[in-house]
Input
Amino acid sequence: MPVGLVVVSHSRALADAAVELARGVLPGRDLAVEVAAGDVDGGPGTDATAIAAAVTAADGGDGVVVLMDLGSAVLAAETALELVGADVRERVVLSPAPLVEGLVGAAVVAAAGAARAQVAAEALRGLAAKQQHLSGGPAADGG
Output
């Protein structure tokens, strides 16, 4: 089973759209992608219990890469890791990658059967193309 992916977002709509985009890049491929988005009442926010459940659901034994949208999502994901068993926890990578770009890149390599470390590394590379493209132009300095 491929490495699982979990999208943690303050917004269910944002998370679902990011997953739809990633799935659109790989039509017909089976992806282990789970979403933990919004608070317990369905509003904006995050829920560590939902994140823990998503991590457990996404883990097929080869590990999970978790992508998060905002700073407090990171805190909730860290808390979620305290709620899962040690065997699952050791297979989870909390990625500092950008949510959308990181998810798309991670999904592509995960679908190809890459190992957890490779999936996490690809997620991190998600911002590189945009940074490289914009670094030499006049917009790079705000002008």
